[in-house]
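User: I've been trying to design a sequence by hand for this structure and keep getting stuck. Would you show me what you'd pick, starting by listing the structure so we're on the same page?

Assistant: Good idea, let's start from the same input. This is the structure you sent:
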């Protein structure tokens, strides 16, 4: 909040965001506070930009729940993905994308941590594909290891049926073949040790 003190270039007033295809409303948000927390909002509401004096701004690239979570985080420092267990991973993915877009690095890190904590049988494959798409090597490795360590649970949860990315499928097949080779090597070593 110290950034809002003594800076005459900060915009004054409130903005209402019209979010998503249905233009759902997030009303009466302080432009000044958004600018203090995000360089993108600082640019958007900066001198010479049409949004500076606008009462409403359309945000079409996201959904209401995710954008609300972004605004709530910026204004309160409260990181909340909601209560729905299955939806938390998807919300973390969506919110991480917004954090990258609006250049909020701490929120991006919180989302990355939440994603790593969300890896479970039902989420491992969708998160693996998302990590592959985003280029998140840490999450990718974690999901690959989880699938390798819990294949029956992932399969029972429908994770295999959720697989859509051919490159990810090839990677998982390669992991499985590597595990088979390791098991065969271990079996050979046991046979030699027993003889």
């Amino acid at each position: 909040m110290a950034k809002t003190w003594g800076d005459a270039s900060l915009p004054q007033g409130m903005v209402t965001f019209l979010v998503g295809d249905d233009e759902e409303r997030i009303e009466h948000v302080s432009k000044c506070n958004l600018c203090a927390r995000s360089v993108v909002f600082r640019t958007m509401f900066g001198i010479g930009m049409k949004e500076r004096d606008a009462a409403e701004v359309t945000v079409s690239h996201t959904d209401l729940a995710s954008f609300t979570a972004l605004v709530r985080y910026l204004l309160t420092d409260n990181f909340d993905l909601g209560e729905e267990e299955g939806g938390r991973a998807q919300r973390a993915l969506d919110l991480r994308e917004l954090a990258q877009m609006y250049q909020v690095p701490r929120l991006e890190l919180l989302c990355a941590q939440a994603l790593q904590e969300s890896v479970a049988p039902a989420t491992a494959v969708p998160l693996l594909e998302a990590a592959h798409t985003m280029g998140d090597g840490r999450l990718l490795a974690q999901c690959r290891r989880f699938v390798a360590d819990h294949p029956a649970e992932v399969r029972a949860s429908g994770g295999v049926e959720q697989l859509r990315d051919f490159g990810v499928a090839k990677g998982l097949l390669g992991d499985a073949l590597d595990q088979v080779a390791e098991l065969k090597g271990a079996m050979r070593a046991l046979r030699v040790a027993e003889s």
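That's my pick for every position. To get oriented when you compare it with your attempt: The longest helix spans residues 166-194. Residues 119-194 form one domain.
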